[in-house]
Amino acid sequence: MDSPVLEAIYKRRSIREFTSAQISTEKLHEIVRAGIWAPSGLNNQPWRFVIIQKPDIKEELAQQTHYGHIVSGANALIAVYLSKDDMYDAVKDHQSAGACIQNILLAAEALELGAVWLGQILKNKAEVNRILGLADNFDLMAVVALGHPLHRNQKSRRKDMSELLLKQL
Ligand SMILES: Cc1cc2nc3c(=O)[nH]c(=O)nc-3n(C[C@H](O)[C@H](O)[C@H](O)COP(=O)(O)O)c2cc1C
Would the CB of 143 count as within 6 Å of ligand 1? Predict the structure, then answer.
């Protein structure tokens, strides 16, 4: 099927190695805007974002995850938060955050950037909040690492639909 959206969905891979090229603020804001346009329950838009490009802050964040080399090598990071004060239903608000993060990944793909969703860093979410100067009413959902891809050799696979489609009634 010839569709730019489907093409982005199928072509997107987690990119973990980046060149040192800068990402413009314009592009970073476009990516955050795509996140903001995700659906959310009651359209409550519980997400909040921190954009990080300062090398010293990136280094501090890199200490908080097993994937520190990805954090250090990325030109920019977008930390995606749920604002606890703006939540109405834990399950639905977390689902909204997932939709927001996927939009961010697809927007990066559309802008020919590479991105990876980093979740392992959540084990140190309190420390991440301290580094970013945020109170604990902001709950970290993911850090997305972004940059210009060093290569696009990344492979991935998915289970066959026959394993996943329970029924077609
Ligand atoms: C909730 C979640 C957490 C993830 N955490 C990490 C992570 O900490 N480090 C990492 O390198 N990749 C992480 N990933 C990326 C996955 O490893 C990746 O999406 C998966 O292997 C499929 O590969 P693909 O994105 O290239 O299709 C995470 C993805 C999700 C959805």
Answer: no
Closest-CA residue, ligand 1 atom 29, reads 117
In a domain, 169, yes or no: no
| 121 located within any domain | yes
CB proximity list for 48: less than 8 A, separation 6 or greater: 80, 81, 82, 83, 138
The yes-or-no verdict on residue 150 having pLDDT over 90 is yes
154 Cβ inside 6 Å of ligand 1: yes
Number of domains in the chain: 1
The pTM for the full model equals 0.98
Q: Report the atom number in ligand 1 closest to the C-alpha of 15.
A: 26
